[in-house]
Write a structure and sequence with these properties.
The chain is mainly alpha-helical. The protein has one domain: Creatine Kinase, Chain A, domain 2 (2-Layer Sandwich). Helix content is 52%, strand content 11%. β4, α7 and β5 form a beta-alpha-beta unit. The longest helix is centred in the middle third of the chain and has 23 residues. The termini are close together.
Amino acid sequence: KLRRNLANLAKSKNLRIAASGTHPFSHWKDQKITSHPRYKTIITDMQQVARANLIFGLHVHIGVNDRETALHIMNAARYFLPHIFALSTNSPFWLGRNTGFKSYRSKVFDRFPRTGIPDYFNSLSEYDNFINLLIKTNCIDDAKKIWWDIRAHPVFNTLEFRICDIPMRVDETIVLAAIMQAIVAKLYKLIKQNLGFRLYRRALIAENKWRAARYGIDAKLIDFGKKEEVPFAGLIRELRDFVDDVVDELGSREELKYVDKILEMGTGADRQLAIWEQSYDTKSVVDYIIDETHYGL
C-alpha cells in the first residue's frame, strides 16, 4: 500500500519510482545531498567516500527486547548473512558500466569505516566497552555510526539487518524480511533452550559475503562445518529447513516459498543483466527496473 501510494504520488509529478541497489547510469556528482546536519557531518568526516555513496540498501528491524539476548542472536546470525545477501543482489551496474558483480553496492559501501561483517562479542559488557572506546577516542559520536551488516540497534530494541540490496519487487522484500525474522526466532528459541550455535570468525564469513557479492545465487558458498563449497540453492534450502519449526507460529510459511521463485527467475541483478544483454542499453535497464518496482501494485 505504501509503495502504491508513493508510486501514485510520483506519477502525479511526472516521475517514476525505481528500486535498485545502484542506479545503472546516474552519476553521484549530479546528485544533491540532503541538508540534514547529520549528513553534512558525515560528508565533512568522510569526504569523497560519502559523496560517492549513491547506493540503496534494505534495512530490516526484528524486535528483541533484551539487549544481551539480541547480542547473542547477532553473533550466531552473522553466519547466515551471505545467504540472505545473495538472494537480494540487485546492483550489477555502476556509472553506466557492467561491474561484473551481482552487488556492486556492497563494494561501494565497503569504503566506509565500521562496515561489513562484525566479529562476535562474548558478552554485552564486552560490546559496550567496544562502543564506549570508539566514542571516547572520537572515532564516533554515537553508536548509530556503527554501520555493520547486522547490529543491535542503539535506540530501538531491535536487531537490524543491513546487508541486503533493495530488491525490485515487493514480494522479494517480503521474503527477505521473513527469512530474517525466522532466523532471529529460531536462534532465540535455541538460546532459551540453552542450546548453542557455532560461531565463526568474521574473516571466514566475509569470504562467503564476497562470493555472494560477485556471483549472487550462482555462487558456491563455503559450508564451514563440512569444510567444502556448496551450491547456493542447496544452502538456502538447508536454511529454510533450519527455521521450519518456527515459521508456522510466525505465519510466514507461504512467504518463504518465494525463495523458489527467486531461484527460478533470478535475482534483481540477474534480471537487470538479462535486459542489458539484449541491447547493451542501461536506459532499457532502468525502464525494466521501473516496471518491476511497480509489479503487483
